[in-house]
Design brief:
Helices cover about 85% and strands about 0% of the residues. By secondary structure, the protein is mainly alpha-helical. Helix 1 crosses helix 3 and helix 2 runs antiparallel to helix 3.
Length: about 80
């Protein structure tokens, strides 16, 4: 993540805004996919009485967490530049 912060400082303000929009879209889509997948897996787990499939939702959750962390770094850089 530190290497990513160095890259962010080298980007222009417009590039940061583009990155922010891109990661905001990723976070939104992954959030929706995670909720839908979790709901479907809970339904099928209860129907078949096999709860091992709920673990599959972890992949979406990890990707969501990673994108959210990157988005937070981008927003922090934008806020730092706005305050200057």
């Amino acid at each position: 993540m530190i290497k990513e912060s160095k890259k962010l400082k080298e980007l222009s303000f417009d590039e940061l805004k583009t990155q922010q929009k891109k990661y905001t879209t990723f976070v939104s889509v992954l959030s929706i996919l995670t909720m839908l997948t979790l709901a479907a897996l809970i339904y099928f787990a209860m129907k078949s009485e096999n709860y091992t499939f709920i673990v599959l939702c972890g992949g979406f959750s990890f990707a969501l967490l990673l994108c959210a962390v990157i988005l937070k770094q981008i927003e922090s850089e934008i806020t730092a530049r706005d305050s200057n």
